[in-house]
Write a structure and sequence with these properties.
By secondary structure, the protein is mostly helical. The chain contains 15 helices and no strands.
């Protein structure tokens, strides 16, 4: 391949990377702008005072519970990967998952944490497409459980009286998610009717579409995760001295996470705090305390993400196994790549 061909192949990659970093900067800037507007609108001094009231022991406990949820999420990912006939020990999934958690803090867009763990798992088992499908399924199952949890909470928990403008969209999202999950086998039967190229892209996800009931164990873990995330923020609120029942967090936090899951800002920064202002306002929480609670949760997830540096530093980038038919006599074959990191 000559230099001109190399240049032509590299240019689309460079352009995609540039767009990805541009989107990352835009989302981070938008989130910071929303926070700045809220602090300007509601006076930052009470927010800063509220942050100063946070007890370190409750803050540490919230981070520990968050990390426990991430460990459980790695198990959920392993269960979903098995549905696509990808093996491996749970320890590998745990390491790859935390590589992704750490990478997400610094690498934006499609080359972020999800791509990192898909690459590690795919190279480990020489099945990149199936590994990507497992990560996509992991994300979709998480969103599915989030929508269900929020819908059930808004219908059954009366800890906070929310207006119909919030209740209706939350319930509709939950019902739509349930309908999509139940109709997945129909979608699987339609895939062969698509063009060859589109069907080829959809093929790795078919095991999940054909057997949605097989994802129930992963969905149960996701529901437990949603409850643990609400528990994390309950601990942060106790550290701030707020006296709210746990049920209020089981109701408000999933709804706020539904809005924060929209890919508008970096890790939902700004969107979540705005949602907290509205939702916890109905629970009688003062505006500075609601903003402080959102900022503390953002800090908790960032600190928790930094814990992935251990997995990032110690986990080698796997090298796909080499077929014995392609071995060259007398030439040693590389089976691992020490120090071969994603970035």
């Amino acid at each position: 391949m000559n230099d001109a061909e190399l240049s032509s192949n590299a240019s689309p990659i460079a352009a995609a990377r540039k767009r990805s970093y541009g989107a990352f900067a835009l989302r981070a800037g938008l989130g910071a702008a929303v926070i700045a507007v809220m602090l300007w609108r509601f006076n930052p001094r009470p927010v800063i005072r509220a942050l100063g009231h946070e007890r370190p022991d409750y803050f540490a406990a919230a981070i520990a519970l968050y990390l426990a949820g991430q460990v459980m999420s790695s198990w959920r990912w392993q269960l979903l990967a098995r549905l696509n006939a990808i093996g491996g020990r749970w320890r590998e999934y745990l390491a790859y998952y935390f590589v992704g958690v750490f990478t997400n803090l610094f690498v934006p867009g499609l080359i972020g944490g999800d791509a990192a763990r898909a690459l590690y798992l795919g190279r480990r088992h020489n099945r990149i497409a199936a590994a990507i499908a497992s990560v996509v399924a992991d994300r979709l199952v998480g969103l599915l459980a989030l929508f269900w949890f929020a819908a059930v909470a808004v219908l059954t928990l009366g800890a906070v009286a929310l207006p119909p403008a919030i209740v209706r969209p939350t319930v509709i999202a939950g019902v739509a998610a349930l309908a999509g999950w139940l109709m997945a086998p129909i979608g699987a039967r339609l895939v062969p009717r698509l063009s060859v190229r589109v069907a080829g892209f959809a093929d790795p996800i078919l095991p999940y579409l054909r057997r949605p009931l097989a994802t129930i164990p992963a969905i149960i873990l996701s529901l437990i995760l949603q409850a643990s995330l609400a528990g994390c923020q309950y601990l942060l609120a106790l550290g701030l001295g707020l006296k709210l029942p746990l049920a209020a967090f089981m109701l408000c936090v999933p709804i706020a996470n539904v809005f924060a899951s929209l890919p508008l800002t970096l890790n939902g920064l700004g969107v979540r705090e705005a949602a907290y202002l509205v939702l916890f306002g109905y629970a009688g929480v003062a505006q500075p305390d609601a903003i402080a609670l959102g900022l503390l949760w953002f800090a908790s997830t960032m600190i928790g993400g930094l814990s992935g540096i251990l997995a990032f530093v110690t986990t080698k980038m796997p090298v796909p196994p080499i077929d014995a038919d392609h071995l060259i006599p007398g030439v040693p074959q590389v089976t691992s790549a020490p120090g071969n990191r994603l970035i």
